[in-house]
Amino acid sequence: MAVCPKCGKEIKTKSKFCPECGAELTTTSKAKKPETKEKEMSEAIKDSVEKVLDTEDATKDFTKKDAKDNMGMALLSYLGPLVLIPYFMEKNSKFVKYHAKQGMNLLVVWVGYAIMCCLLGLIKVSRTVYYFGYAYGKVKVTPWWVCLPMWIVGLGVSILAILGIVYVIQGKAKELPIINKIKIFK
After folding, report:
1. In this structure, are strands 2-3 and 125-131 parallel, antiparallel, or unpaired?
2. What three-state secondary structure class fits 34?
3. pTM higher than the cut 0.85
4. CA dihedral 85, 87, 90, 96 (to 10 degrees)
C-alpha cells in the first residue's frame, strides 16, 4: 500500500500515479507504520507531562544550608494537617515558609476533595445482594461512576503531595503543578 506524497490518499493498487490528484508515486512512499503513530502519541504524552511539571523553580533564592538544616520541618508541609506545625512555628527559615505555603494550599485542595467525597457519597442506589444464588436483601451503595472519579482525584492530590516531598528531599523550592494556580496562602 502506498500513500500519495501530494494529497496523502492511501492507494491500494500498484499504479504509478495517484488516482485522486495525478501525482507521480515513487516506491519510497509507504503508509506510516503503526509504530510511528504510537511513537508520536507517546512523545505527545511525554511533552504534555513535561509541560505540566515545568513550574517555576525558585531554588536559587534559598541557601543550601537553610534547605539542609530545615528539611524535616519542610517535609511536614506535605503531610496533610501537619502543615500547621511548620506554617505557624517556623518563622526563621525562608525554605520552610515557602513549602509551608504550598502545603497550606494543598491542604485547602485536600479539604475541598474530602467535602466533595462526603457529599457525593450521599448519592445511593439500591442493589440486591445475592448469597449462593439466593437474594439475601437490598442494600444502598454509592455507584461506581461516582466513586471512580473521586478516587482518581484523590490519587492526583496524593501524587502532588509526594512530588512536594521529593522537591524537599532534593533541596528544591519548586512550585507544585496545578496547585501553583491556587494561591490562597501567599
Report:
1. unpaired
2. helix
3. no
4. 110
Please tell me the distance from the alpha carbon of residue 60 to that of residue 47, in angstroms, as a whole number.
25
113 touches 157 (CB < 8 A)? yes
C-alpha cell read off for 78: 506535605
Going from N- to C-terminal start, the domains of the chain cover: 59-181
pLDDT tens for each residue of 135-175: 778 888 888 898 999 999 999 999 999 999 999 999 999 99
Q: What share of the chain is helix, strand, coil (3-state, %, to 5)?
A: 55, 15, 30
| Cell numbers found for residue 151 | 478516587
Query: How far apart are the C-alpha atoms of 158 and 9, rounded to whole Å?
Result: 47
Count of C-beta atoms within a 10 Å radius of residue 104: 17
